[in-house]
Structure prediction request, 137 residues.
Amino acid sequence: MTITVKNKIPIVVPPTVRRQAGLKGGDRLEFKVSGRVITIFPRPPAGDDEYTRAERRAIDRGIAQSEQEYAAGKSYGPFKTAAEAIASLNANLRRRQAAKKKLKSARNNSDFLPSTFVIRLFAQKNTMKLATCGRRA
Prediction:
């Protein structure tokens, strides 16, 4: 398509060209000139425009936490194939389900005292009080 450049009127990109290039209202364009050739590129949004400061801080906190967990060895893999990854996920799921089932059956038992808690008895005015004092590591 050919258009004529006029002195005081800006160059207008015809609608059919905009449609073919996928340009929409509000898109930013970048112009590069090489000799007598003008190349027009769509300008991607800057990284700062993508997220607010609060969102960026939350994302950065999440990334930092993930890096700490990875450094502490709280990760799985690497896997050579997708089948290995799926097998690992299924094995972890079976372990979690077995642990949940074991805990449920232990709670149904009347003798159940959670092993994850340290229990202390306190004598106070000839009565006994049972108090949980915290979790064992």
